[in-house]
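Internal QA ticket QA-208
Title: Verify multi-chain structure generation after dependency bump
Assignee: T.L.

Test input:
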Amino acid sequence: MKRTLLLLAGLTLGACAPADSGTANDSPDAGTRANPLPSWNEGPARTAIIDFVERTTTAGSPDFVPVPERIATFDNDGTLWSEQPIYFQLAFAIDRSKMIAAHNPELAENPLLAALASGDENALASVTEHDLVQLVAETHSGMTLEQYQAIVANWLDVARHPRFGVPYQALIYQPMLELLEYLRAHDYKTFIVSGGGIDFMRVFAEDVYGIPPEQVVGSMGETEFEIRDGVPVLIKQRAMNFVDDKGGKPVGIARFIGRRPVMAWGNSDGDLAMLQYTMGGDGPRFAGYVHHDDADREWAYDRGSHIGGFDKGWDEAVEKGWTVVSMKDEWSKIYPGENLP
Amino acid sequence: MKRTLLLLAGLTLGACAPADSGTANDSPDAGTRANPLPSWNEGPARTAIIDFVERTTTAGSPDFVPVPERIATFDNDGTLWSEQPIYFQLAFAIDRSKMIAAHNPELAENPLLAALASGDENALASVTEHDLVQLVAETHSGMTLEQYQAIVANWLDVARHPRFGVPYQALIYQPMLELLEYLRAHDYKTFIVSGGGIDFMRVFAEDVYGIPPEQVVGSMGETEFEIRDGVPVLIKQRAMNFVDDKGGKPVGIARFIGRRPVMAWGNSDGDLAMLQYTMGGDGPRFAGYVHHDDADREWAYDRGSHIGGFDKGWDEAVEKGWTVVSMKDEWSKIYPGENLP
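Actual output:
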């Protein structure tokens, strides 16, 4: 049963998300033009998206945006894929911590690492995003970038989500895949701007979202260039360089993209500054906010201070009248896999 | 006379470098296909470039490189435009220092700033790239990113190069513009990877090179996000975040692009690590090295420790047999302007 699920999920993923980003920006096929956003129910969000894209991409429209300025940024965790019961990168860090602890007694004495490796629920509940980036930095320093990314790729192959029993990357949102493709078909350039690790996300972003590495912005550690035995390599360091969350998101956008987005999507306090920055520009702007209100098919949560906080983002999204998407009402399908919700 | 020069330079620039980067990646016109690289004389460099591009972009070729992996990186100073008698960004920093010193007595007491403002040749000769980035950081903190870039744009409008009497951005290399366009016509994505300031270069890179902001990598200061009087802004800070020079170049490539380039171009020790990193990958790789050997039309310099150093880069380029371009012998034209060499 589980095998079938996986197989179906894998097949569907392959069909939905082109691995070749070079073609992702080409013209869409006629089918997509005829019925964009098939997993979005008729409703205010779908209408707002299509209206905005048509206004900003139709020649002669007063809201026309030139192609080079068509920048759309997306948070990843909770916006492009699920983030429950814990951030998927945290699940990776825990698995990694367990293995490291088993082989390195002195590392096992690090309290955070020991707590994570123990799997204790209270310990897990108290882990913040800052802890996570520190943990990843600490458990992944001293190796080359290629070695690190091979470890992530291997984990993505073998790890299974505890609730759905599928690879984590099967839990990307089908409606958001369609939105990414719809935007690219209208010459929008799509970027991830996430608190997650940049080197972590780049392992799968191109395959699953059609977003190439150079369009992924995230948190990052320092890196050092070395010639080791005549071979030039980049070594991941323990020190953090940049945390791409909250006020860091507009900073990351200015640094990596150099242009204010026309459209941005998020789902938490961590995305609020990015949404404010996007809406603070002149001309047409779009802020989208994914509302997790579907406990049956995904999860329901929109308040509280867990995982970096939700209250501020949610309150401002409602107050400012941003495009809040009810997953329950507006998404006919959550995940691409046929046997998934 | 000078007016005519400027006008011609301006007109020619407009014709050579498309301002709309959205079209820069589109198919080239038939003329470019028929005679790529018209300002490159027949010779080893032109032959090596065309051979490499054809090998890596022809379907079925054993050296074929898939489109998403076609990454080409270019140093800016001395590789895409001139860097004599001083880095153009240093000329900007000096002009800026003079104005700041005139209005801010306490800033005028900074020894480096005072020396630069004085225009003293000995003081200028001892300024390093590190001094420059520090100077820019110090004289440009506390303002928004938009304010800073407006100052740069204004300077580019009014400043004139001391030798040629034209705007600095007229001193871009015509053969390199053709190379950038030729690569893009073959679905290479072209990036600047420069020790220069990222926010400085992004002001003109799209207009003069057809390289959009998100494909410009450079040195950068810290930036802070703030809401000022209800308006979200990014404030440039005094502290440096990253110096994109020497070993910093491969780090910047890994951070911003996330893929090892297939082709890289430089002209100094500052570019050596980028060239080593590029050549260290599997499959076909190309390292290009611009040799400044034309004192009549540009400048002649390839040794010594000035401006960050040249000896190590030059020696390794020759020893490894990288594609060294003689500006004197292989470029029929240096600058785009009709009355320029």
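Spot checks passed. The first strand of chain B starts at residue 71 and ends at 74.
Status: verified.
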